[in-house]
Structure formats: structure tokens, C-alpha cells
């Protein structure tokens, strides 16, 4: 009897041990798998290899022959979302962040400023024949400072006393994104603006077709030099014509779209304007351009004085509605 | 028929397998049962959690990053791009000017790295019947091979001299006139005042004076602005000549014919020269 009980206890102990070993083994397995995933993400991010971010039915990749922007280290990596892909640039598709410093005469790219424009691109590969995608853009401004020789990147929204609010608003109206562009350098016509909404998000919808085929998506960015390039100010004797038209080459009322955005969110475009102000593009801006044009210029100044770096975040999700074709 | 038979056989095999599994499970000791359940649960959790976690982590996000270039300067300075305190309007001899001498002063503008288009504004009071004009100018070093024989302005750069530079005298040749348009002219009353003065009530007037102010009409500034000016590609800085001359025709018309009296102890005018980014 005694020996039987001892055997049973031994068995139980052995079994418990087995359970514990199994648990530890499972945990180790879980950790290994997780670490492997993180390592993979890191590796690809830093080596500049072609990596991708995938949804269930699509994949986002950088375009070929692209490389990391020159402000990646130490600035971008300080604010980078580990789950996001570093958007890589080429000599023709960039945010004035491609050419490295060589010497004083060739200082390389120094970032964007009023009057600059360009295109940035990426690839979408559907895993199904056709997919509707929502592209949500967000532009976030940062101030860079050093504390004990350590770089500190502060988002505008975290600046004390709401100091960065106006500048963050201005980024939504002064750095504009478009789906299309035509014409030649210095004389571009922009079409299909991707305008900021009340939440400072810009949404683009597209249907991308072709299973396992990479489609390049181009996003045209522009920082207009003056308000007269987006709102018609000819009534005030201004000779500059807006760079958007209605019923344009892409069958889109681009001028009206952007004009409406200026009227809906004047605080994104004009320094001194508040959300909810009723500022008409015709009877206010068009008729009194010297006043409103200056508010726009002051907005540029606000960005220039407050913002050191900007992050353009794009998240792509499967959507239901489709906009312009791919 | 054969297919039906086969599927029946398969179904039977499945049932047998499940039964066997159940029996096998029933035969296990309590500890073994717990062990089996934990192992199965962990496997299921692993199978479900990993792809789900990965799916969330892999939501399609991509980030671009760039710098905002610092705002550029638009500087208006004295001749030879010296500091603005060297822009001197002294030594204006009204009596000489009335006799036909034109007083000319040089100033410089730099549109910074971006070379933005800009405009000039000349605001001045109207006590003396002066005519103000602005011209583009080209700079030469005095004594150089290409130095002009009859420059419009000879400018001595005091900072250059103080730095010990050998050549510190610069010569400026007058170029194309910059058209200035008055923003607040009182064109209706030229007959009374003899020439165009500033309006006594308009937006500019209301911006300048508070209600109740009653300034003397010649002290109200008139604002004259240029159109879009693009930087001179052949020069590091843009140079301009401000030319002040006597408006003898205007001075002799209207009720104020005594305007044509030019005495150096007579009157004072203030002028303001500004450059701003062109917003047109």
C-alpha cells in the first residue's frame, strides 16, 4: 500500500514536471517566434532592402531603386512607428530629403519650403483581383532640441501652452497633397486634392486591380508660395492664376474642392483665422487679397519658425468605396 | 455507388477515430488529462494569437520624413549690401534739387537662398513737392577695368574701408525704372493741392489713424508699391537707386503756387522703404 501510494505520488510529480517543461517550452517557442518577427522588421528597415507591409489582401512596398531619406538618422528613427515601413525616396521622387551634403557649395537637400513641390511614390500589390483601399494621410510637425546632448523630438501638440497648435493647423493647409499633376515644372496643374478633414486626416480611396501585380501610386505634394495659387484673387488685381481647375483633365472639380476646404477650415490656411470663421473665397479672399494673402504668408512664417521636421504618415486599410482609378 | 460506399467507409473511420480518441482520453489519468488540455489550449492560442497579432502589427503603414527649411531672409540694406544704418538720406539740398539736380541714393535687397519674388514699397509724407522714382542699378568697383565713366551714384562703403579693403568705393549705373503705383492717391483733389497727395479717408488712412485724429493733409503718408520684382541673376544682391527730384510742374499748379519756393530750412518729409514677399 505504502509503495503504491509512493508510486502514484512519483507519477504525479513526473507529470507535473512534464507539464511545467511543456509550458516553458511553449513560452520559449512564443518568445522565439515573436523576436524573430521583430528582428525581421528591424533588419529590413535599417538595411534598406525591399520590405513590405501587408494587410490581408494587399501589400505595400517601396518603389525600386529607392533609399532612405537623409533625415532618417537620427531624426526619423526617433519618432518612427515600429510597425510602419520607412518610405524610401529616389532622385526624382522625394520630399527634398534625398541628396546628401557634399560640401559648402553642394549642401544637399535642406527640406521643404514655400514654393517647393514634388512627388512621393510607393507600390501596392493586391493579393486578390481587385481591392478597394483607403489611404489615410496625416502630417505631424516636430521640434528638435537637445537635452544633455540627447536629441529630443517634440510633436507640436506637446509644446507647452498650446504653442504648436497654430503651426500644426497650418501644416494641413500649406502642405497640400494631390492625386494627379499635369504640365511642366514651374507650370503644373494639380488635380484631385486630398484635403484635410476636421480630424486633420486626408483620405484617398482607390481601387487597385491586378492580383500579385505591383501598382505604383504617386502622391504629388506642393507647398504653395502664395494663397493666390489656390484661390482666385483676380478681383483684387492679382495676376497669378490658381493651379487647380474645375472639370479638369481628370474630370474632377479640383478648384472647387480646394476652395471649399479653405472655406471649411480657414484655420488650416490663414494665420489669425479660427475654426468656424466664415471666410468666403470670393467676397473676402478674392475681394480683399492683400489682407488674406498676408494671413497665408504669416501662416508660412509660423510653420517656418515653429516646425523643424515633418512626418507624413500613411495608413492603408481595406475600404468599401472606391474613388479615382489606379 | 462506389463513391457512396467509399464516403460511408471514410465516415465510419472518422467516427472510429474519434471514439478511439475519446476512449484514449478517458483512459488518461487526471494529471495527463490536464496536461493534454493545457497543451491543446496553448497550441490553439499560439495558432490564433500569432497571425492576429501579426495582422494588427502589419496594418499597411508607411512613413515619410523631411525637414522644414528655415524661413528665408528678405533684407533691405544700404549700398554694397552694407548694414541699413549706412543708408543715408542726408545732404538733400532742396535749392539745388529745385534747380534741376537729382539726388540719388543706392540701396540693396537680398531675397535669400530661395530667391523669392518680392515687391518694394515707398511710403512718404508730401510736404515737399518731390518726385520719387526707383531704378534698378548695377554695381561696379571704382577703378576696375569695366568701371563706368559717369556713374549715377558713387558710394563709399564705410564697412569695407574699415575692414581694410583696398577698393571700397562702388559705382552704380541706373537701369530700368521700377513702376510704382500709389495705393491711396487723392486724384480728385490735385487741383486744390497742386499735386497728388494721400487720401484723407480710406482703408489706409483708417489703418494709420485712430478715430478723432486730424493730421495735417501733407503729413498723411502716401503708399506707392512696385509689382513683382525677380532677383538679378547676374548679381549677388539686387541694387536699386532711389532718385529724388523736384516736381516743378506740380509745384506751380493749384492754389499752392508758393510750393515752388524751395528753401532748405523749409520742411521735412519722411520716407519709408520696405521690401516684402510678393503675394500676387
Characterization of this structure:
The complex is a heterodimer of chains A (about 325) and B (about 280). Chain A has about 325 residues and is an alpha+beta fold. In chain A, about 30% of the residues lie in helices and about 25% in strands. Chain A is built from seven helices and eleven strands. In chain A, the strands form two sheets. Chain A has a six-stranded antiparallel β-sheet with strand order 1-2-4-10-7-8. In chain A, helix 3 (about 165-175) crosses helix 7 (about 290-305). The longest helix of chain A is centred in the first third of the chain and has 46 residues, at about 1-45. In chain A, about 35% of the residues are buried. With about 280 residues, chain B is α+β, with helices and mostly antiparallel strands. Chain B contains seven helices and eleven strands. In chain B, the strands form two sheets. In chain B, strands 2-3-10-5-7-6 form a six-stranded antiparallel β-sheet. Chain B has a four-stranded antiparallel β-sheet with strand order 8-9-4-11, with no helix packed on it. The termini of chain B are far apart. Classes of the chains: A alpha+beta (about 325), B alpha+beta (about 280).
Q: How many strands of chain B?
A: 11
Strand pairing plus helix content of chain B: what structural class? alpha+beta
Q: Residue-averaged pLDDT of chain A, rounded?
A: 89
Beta-strand proportion of chain A: 15-25%
Shape of chain B: elongated
- The proportion of strand residues of chain B reads 25-35%
Please tag this protein with its features:
heterodimer; A: 6-stranded antiparallel beta sheet; B: 280 residues; 4-stranded antiparallel beta sheet; 7 helices; 11 strands
List the helices and strands and how they pair.
The complex is a heterodimer of chains A (326) and B (280).
Chain A: H1 2-47, E1 52-54, E2 58-61, H2 72-79, E3 85-86, E4 117-126, E5 130-147, E6 150-155, H3 165-174, E7 176-182, E8 189-193, E9 202-209, E10 215-222, H4 254-264, H5 266-269, H6 281-286, H7 289-306, E11 309-318
Chain B: H1 2-27, H2 30-57, E1 60-67, E2 75-78, H3 94-98, E3 103-110, E4 118-124, E5 130-141, E6 153-156, H4 158-162, E7 169-178, E8 181-182, H5 190-193, H6 203-208, E9 222-225, E10 238-246, H7 248-251, E11 271-277
Antiparallel strand pairs in B: 2-3, 3-10, 4-9, 4-11, 5-7, 5-10, 6-7, 8-9
Amino acid at each position: 500500500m505504502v509503495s503504491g501510494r509512493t508510486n502514484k505520488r512519483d507519477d504525479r510529480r513526473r507529470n507535473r514536471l512534464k507539464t511545467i517543461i511543456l509550458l516553458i517550452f511553449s513560452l520559449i517557442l512564443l518568445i522565439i517566434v515573436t523576436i524573430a518577427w521583430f528582428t525581421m522588421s528591424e533588419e529590413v528597415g535599417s538595411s534598406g532592402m525591399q520590405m513590405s507591409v501587408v494587410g490581408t489582401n494587399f501589400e505595400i512596398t517601396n518603389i525600386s531603386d529607392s533609399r532612405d531619406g537623409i533625415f532618417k538618422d537620427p531624426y526619423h528613427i526617433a519618432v518612427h512607428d515600429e510597425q510602419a515601413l520607412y518610405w524610401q525616396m529616389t532622385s526624382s521622387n522625394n520630399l527634398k530629403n534625398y541628396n546628401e551634403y557634399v560640401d559648402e557649395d553642394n549642401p544637399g537637400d535642406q527640406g521643404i519650403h514655400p514654393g517647393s513641390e514634388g512627388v512621393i511614390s510607393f507600390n501596392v500589390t493586391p493579393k486578390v483581383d481587385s481591392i478597394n483601399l483607403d489611404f489615410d494621410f496625416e502630417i505631424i510637425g516636430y521640434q528638435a532640441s537637445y537635452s544633455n546632448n540627447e536629441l529630443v523630438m517634440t510633436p507640436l501638440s506637446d509644446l507647452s501652452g498650446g504653442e504648436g497648435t497654430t503651426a500644426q493647423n497650418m501644416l494641413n493647409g500649406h502642405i497640400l497633397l494631390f492625386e494627379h499633376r499635369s504640365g511642366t515644372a514651374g507650370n503644373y496643374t494639380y488635380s484631385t486634392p486630398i484635403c484635410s478633414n476636421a480630424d486633420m486626416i486626408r483620405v484617398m480611396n482607390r481601387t487597385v486591380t491586378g492580383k500579385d501585380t505591383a501598382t505604383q501610386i504617386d502622391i504629388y505634394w506642393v507647398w504653395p508660395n502664395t494663397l493666390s495659387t489656390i484661390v482666385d484673387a483676380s478681383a483684387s488685381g492679382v495676376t497669378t492664376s490658381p493651379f487647380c481647375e474645375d472639370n479638369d483633365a481628370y474630370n474632377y472639380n479640383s478648384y472647387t474642392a480646394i476652395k471649399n476646404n479653405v472655406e471649411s477650415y480657414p484655420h488650416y490656411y490663414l494665420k489669425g483665422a479660427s475654426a468656424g470663421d466664415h471666410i468666403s473665397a470670393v467676397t473676402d479672399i478674392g475681394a480683399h487679397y492683400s489682407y488674406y494673402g498676408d494671413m497665408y504668408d504669416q501662416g508660412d512664417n509660423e510653420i517656418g519658425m515653429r516646425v523643424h521636421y515633418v512626418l507624413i504618415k500613411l495608413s492603408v486599410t481595406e475600404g468599401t468605396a472606391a474613388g479615382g482609378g489606379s | 455507388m462506389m463513391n457512396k460506399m467509399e464516403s460511408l467507409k471514410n465516415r465510419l473511420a472518422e467516427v472510429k477515430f474519434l471514439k478511439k480518441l475519446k476512449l484514449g482520453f478517458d483512459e488518461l489519468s487526471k494529471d495527463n488529462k490536464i496536461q493534454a488540455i493545457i497543451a491543446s489550449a496553448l497550441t490553439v492560442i499560439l495558432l490564433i494569437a500569432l497571425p492576429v497579432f501579426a495582422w494588427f502589427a502589419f496594418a499597411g503603414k508607411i512613413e515619410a520624413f523631411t525637414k522644414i527649411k528655415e524661413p528665408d531672409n528678405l533684407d533691405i540694406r544700404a549700398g554694397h549690401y552694407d548694414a541699413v544704418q549706412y543708408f543715408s538720406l542726408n545732404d538733400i539740398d532742396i535749392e539745388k534739387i529745385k534747380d534741376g539736380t537729382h539726388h540719388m541714393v543706392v540701396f540693396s535687397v537680398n531675397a535669400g537662398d530661395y530667391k523669392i519674388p518680392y515687391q518694394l514699397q515707398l511710403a512718404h509724407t508730401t510736404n515737399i513737392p518731390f518726385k520719387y522714382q526707383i531704378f534698378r542699378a548695377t554695381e561696379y568697383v571704382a577703378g576696375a577695368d569695366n568701371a563706368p565713366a559717369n556713374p549715377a551714384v558713387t558710394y563709399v562703403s564705410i564697412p569695407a574701408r574699415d575692414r581694410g579693403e583696398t577698393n571700397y568705393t562702388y559705382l552704380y549705373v541706373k537701369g530700368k525704372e521700377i513702376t510704382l503705383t500709389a495705393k491711396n492717391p487723392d486724384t480728385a483733389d490735385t487741383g486744390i493741392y497742386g499735386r497728388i497727395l494721400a487720401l484723407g479717408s480710406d482703408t489706409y488712412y483708417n489703418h494709420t489713424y485712430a478715430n478723432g485724429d486730424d493730421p495735417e493733409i501733407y503729413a498723411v503718408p502716401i503708399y506707392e508699391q512696385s509689382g513683382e520684382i525677380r532677383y538679378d541673376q547676374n548679381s549677388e544682391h539686387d541694387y536699386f537707386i532711389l532718385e529724388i527730384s523736384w516736381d516743378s510742374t506740380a509745384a506751380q499748379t493749384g492754389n499752392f503756387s508758393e510750393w515752388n519756393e524751395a528753401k532748405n530750412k523749409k520742411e521735412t518729409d519722411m520716407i519709408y522703404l520696405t521690401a516684402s514677399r510678393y503675394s500676387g
